[in-house]
Design brief:
6 helices, globular, alpha+beta, 196 residues
Amino acid sequence: MANSDSLVANAMATDRLNALMGQLSNVSPHSQNWARLMDELLATLGQRLRCDRVFLYLRCPDSQLGRVPFCWRSRPSVPQIYDPEWKPEPSSLADEDPMFAAALKAQPSIFVADVETASPTVLNRDFERATFGHRALIHAHLCSGQTLWGILQACVFDAPRQWSQADRHLIEQAIPGLTPLAQQYGQTHHPKANRG
């Protein structure tokens, strides 16, 4: 019965995410409505995944600039990740962060149950502690072809977390809709896109 309830809840969340992604695709990424819808989408994901934080890292592959313009937190005490401006990606980032290297290679999304026990081939424990502070995470790669346009990251802080099949399915359902939105955002918000 609990599994059936989970499937129903997941289906409802997927329907809501699809509706939000459909609305986002019909609104200019420069509008306040687009930002509001994206915030609502991240909140829907965060609540369904029962996690502490969900953020969206968006990038421009050609210039290797990136930023985090959207971050949902379950409570104010959860650290916020936010970049008001585009920033160059450090040239050493793929060497320091195996998950980022995997994303650049358009490899499948990564589900980490425990940062403290994960293999060093999966993640750099010291980098994760210093940069994010989370204990378990989902590192979802938003790729078009072999090009990385963004990373959706969901995490928990206080304890390890086994990500369920329902969690994995929800992320797999969200990625195809989020990827073109990440691409659209990068193409329209990139500093060069705003020049005459």
